[in-house]
Amino acid sequence: MENKVVIFWFRRDLRLDDNVGLTHALKSGFRVLPVFIFDTTILNLLENKYDRRVDYIHQVLTLMNEQLHQHGSGIKTFHGTPSEVFDTIATTYAVEAVYCNHDYEPDAIRRDLSVKKQLSEKGIAFHSFKDQVVFEKGEVAKSDGSPYTVFTPYAKKWKETLQINEYSVSIADNGKFVPMPPEQIHSLSAIGFQKTDMKFSKPSPDESIVKNYHLYRDFPAMNLTTYLGIALRFGTISVRQCVDFARKHNETWLNELIWREFFMQILYHYPQVVNTSFKPQYDFIQWRNNEEEFARWCEGTTGYPIVDAGMRQLNETGFMHNRVRMIVASFLCKHLLIDWRWGEAYFAEKLNDYDLSANNGNWQWAAGCGCDAAPYFRIFNPTAQTQKFDKNLEYTRTWNPDFELAVPIVDHQAARERALKTYGAALKKE
């Protein structure tokens, strides 16, 4: 008993407070060894080694390691595949069990099943818990047990189901970590990445922003969104803390948190959406997929000022305001008739807060092919959107100061008619 340890495997839950799986590990009766794997299966896919997300993770782990030093412990980091790493751990330590929190992406589910099997063959238990959402999988379902595929009834049932214990803080005992001398985690250069301009600070909801979220969230120049997307993505803030805060201060922000869980359960129940449209008939669309026009969209040189401002903000900072994300996504799919998967992949490469379920769900929403009731003939007019949400052009001028010199890549009315005709022809093939 004294020599055996349990492992807590950090993934999308990079915090020591209010961490369900970690709490269970600390209550196991064994000393807890915290580990993080710089997973080469994922990192090798990142061609740009100046990646703010990797730097963000590295900064968080550094701070957590320093926190654990105060308790005479630390985080062991590894660089390799989970399979390789757990072979190493199992030969180095007398491991009783591995604890972690659930992940709902198809690749992550396959990874965890593989690790569970590998550990089982060594006589090591694998325990996983719900942590990154309030409700998971089928916990919010229709009366017949089937998953919701439309947001509004899902959100209604979600709120009806919510009880205080669902968003109560998970309390951990910091006194039961494996003792170890202070040591540094892997450096960025050791895992093949570079330092970026990313600056991590402990995230928390801002009451002044959240209280007025419903009033100002659509105006990109006002800079009044929560900026907690990356924190929720990597678990540097607890979703329970956010839900509790939203309940007290703003239902519109609570709905945004519910949208996040809605898309997660869609991805869990319908993993095929990673590569195909939720509504299969939309895969009949004859996309133009003009590579030169796609490059201009990526660069922010379409000649549509707010579209180009958004893409330049994304390219320069890794962030784009949510209203602008909808505008640029609609423009790519409807005005240029470029496959939503191309845009989704570009966002996946660039967004600091990239999350597969939300990225996929929102791109399919923009293309009209997703699970929610969004008619294909809803086509955002970038000019009208600018007049409504950036009428003084403050946001546009900030990110696209030379916009008055640009020539539009396509005429809005002609593009709209082309999109309606193309979509309509595809849907007749049902």
From TrEMBL:
One of its GO terms (molecular function) is deoxyribodipyrimidine photo-lyase activity. FAD binds at Y213, W253, E256, L257, I258, W259, R260, E261, F262, F263, D353, Y354, D355. Residues 4-134 form the Photolyase/cryptochrome alpha/beta domain. Its cofactor is FAD; (6R)-5,10-methylene-5,6,7,8-tetrahydrofolate. Binds 1 FAD per subunit. SUPFAM superfamilies: Cryptochrome/photolyase FAD-binding domain (SSF48173), Cryptochrome/photolyase, N-terminal domain (SSF52425). Signal peptide: none annotated. The keyword Flavoprotein applies. InterPro entries: Crypto/Photolyase_FAD-like_sf, Crypto/Photolyase_N_sf, Cryptochr/Photolyase_FAD-bd, Cryptochrome/DNA_photolyase_1, DNA_photolyase_1_CS_C, DNA_photolyase_N, Rossmann-like_a/b/a_fold. Pfam families: DNA_photolyase, FAD_binding_7. One of its GO terms (biological process) is response to light stimulus. The record marks W287, W340, W363 as: Electron transfer via tryptophanyl radical. Belongs to the DNA photolyase family. This is Deoxyribodipyrimidine photo-lyase. It comes from Taishania pollutisoli.
